[in-house]
Amino acid sequence: MSNLPNCPACNSEYTYEDGRFLMCPECGHEWTLEGEAAMTEEAQVVKDANGNVLQDGDTVLVIKDLKVKGSSSVLKMGTKVKNIRLVDGDHDIDCKIDGFGAMKLKSEFVKKA
Ligand SMILES: [Zn+2]
Question: pLDDT-based confidence at 28, cuts 50/70/90?
């Protein structure tokens, strides 16, 4: 078997390639991998305060003091955050910070280290 993705319409695993298209024999759906990749890319571009594109696993620096929700602690400007993970939503960076634990940050308040 190949490692083609399942059908996005019916989730069948019996998909096959036909030229630049992927076909599903079960529901007749056809689609392209390029289209899918382009859409994913567009949805996942997260930029730091300087407009640099961030990626999973990047190390970033906090560029201003940030209040930590639900506590009285403050995440200090200059705090290094390693191994970030990009997520959807208002706070688009998932990370773990020493002394704070798991938290979410906004990409506009960090810059790539
Ligand atoms: Zn299908």
Answer: very high
